[in-house]
Write a structure and sequence with these properties.
Layout lengths: L5 E3 L25 H18 L7 E2 L5 E6 L3 E6 L19 H9 L3 E2 H19 L15 E5 L5 H8 L4 E6 L9 H9 L6 E6 L9 H5 L4 E7 L8 H11 E12 L4 H13 L2 E14 L5 E4 L10 H4 L2 E9 L2
Parallel strand pairs: 6-7, 6-9, 7-8, 9-10
Antiparallel strand pairs: 1-3, 2-5, 3-4, 10-13, 11-12, 11-13
Helix pairs in contact: 3-4
Length: about 325
Amino acid sequence: MLHSRIRPLPRLQPGSSIPTESAPPPDFHNEDNGDDYSSAEDLFSAFLPHLFPDDAPSFHGDPGQRLLYTSPRYGDLEIMVPSYPSQSERLPSEDGSVNAVDEGRKLFAHFLWSAAMVVAEGVEKADTLAARGELDADTAMWTVRGERVLELGAGAALPSVICARAHAAAVTITDHPSSPALTGAIHFNIRRNLATTETKVTSQPHKWGTLESDPWAVAHRGTFTRIIAADCYWVRSQHENLVRTMNWFLAPSGKVWVVAGFHTGRAIVAWFFETAVQNGLMIERIHERDLIATSEDGGEVRREWMPEREGEGPENRRRWCVVALLRRRE
């Protein structure tokens, strides 16, 4: 089961340091009894998928927590979840008010989302089958060897870490300039898991839609052959900016991986696909994946993508995500 790959690591002692100068330690409360409480809480959290097998978590971890992601191909990877943004990190606009959209983005970053795990699993499976000479057409959509990869709204950046391990030519990790992921977690995850990789891995703050005015965006227009966008669809007003950003960075033969849970309903995800098609992208492949169940041979359980499903409640909706492959319309 996908969610069984994740388990929490012991929380750091108060005052202990993380082996990178850019990653701040998480906040601690109730320090007198922190060890016993944290270990019991983490142990319970690790067993939740087994205690409630029909309840698919949308996200994993707590702000600033370290998680162990077990990869069948690359072994155990240590992933730090971005820290929770503090009040001191609020970014006022020119008139002194706080931008609600930017503040919301910061709150989306402090978990590891299940959509990121779907991308990671797809890439490592493709890498495994390709090494055996058994790559099929269904799995080939996830191949990254020799590709130039861009992750948008990366958060903890697990997909980028896996792409680097799968021998992508280069990986660029981006998130909004206000995202807490850029204050330490991304750099920690790169240094902890990619010390020996030959793939060039960089991180870059980027605000969707600010293309002509961003020197980095201008320099990298049309250079990425794979773009990752996992659970980036919360803010409907940003869909057009997101699609413009995809179109801007996408190489002529490039592909976009779209993976999204239905945490806020199907309508907002369907709206993104409509926006993408209206603005020059086309859907090459699309399906829904069950995040809990597996087939008899251990494979994925899939069904047809539908913008609306009559009678679907929040509990059932949470166990599904949509997986799509987009490219430029010819």
